[in-house]
Design brief:
Helix content is about 30%, strand content about 25%. It has about 160 residues and is of the alpha/beta class.
Length: about 160
């Protein structure tokens, strides 16, 4: 797909990757890959190597948690580590407002404003990670350290 034919959220992710000095490895699929299981099946990789970009509402501000597709985030554990109040799963409207991307296609980068980001330490076990690239049909590959660098994420156990 030519760059000018990409949906705007995917184009934003590609621009962000380039601006951050990362390789543009965005892959656009002919079918939707809105879940970690669907993405892993399309890519032929372990679901644990899929990086879910999950947006939470932390006292009215967005918190992005990059978590393994094989894990469920323990919001109580994360809140305790952050020394913060309650963390809730954000509504689809809150996610769209803060990322410019729809739930199921949220990328770790390419948002209108920088979002505080946490990175699941368990993802370090995989040499190649795959993350959403802004919509339900796009993903990009990246290494753990590079993902941490481009997002400025704080690594921590989240499950």
């Amino acid at each position: 797909m030519s760059p000018e034919a990409l949906p705007e959220p995917v184009a934003n992710v590609r621009r962000a990757l380039t601006a951050l000095g990362a390789h543009d490895t965005v892959t656009v699929f002919s079918t939707k890959v809105p879940t970690a299981a669907a993405a892993a099946a399309a890519l032929g990789c372990d679901v644990a190597a899929i990086t879910n970009s999950l947006v939470f509402d932390l006292e009215g501000t967005p918190l992005l948690i990059l978590a393994s597709g094989a894990a469920r985030v323990d919001v109580g554990k994360v809140a305790a580590q952050l020394g913060s109040g309650k963390i809730r799963r954000a509504s689809p409207d809150f996610v769209l407002e803060h990322t410019g991307q729809e739930v199921g296609g949220v990328a770790p980068v390419g948002h209108p404003e920088k979002i505080r980001t946490l990175l699941d330490e368990s993802l370090a076990a995989h040499p190649v990670l795959w993350a959403g690239a802004g919509d339900h049909n796009s993903m990009f590959s990246i290494g753990y350290e590079e993902l941490q660098r481009i997002t400025g994420a704080e690594a921590m156990p989240v499950r």
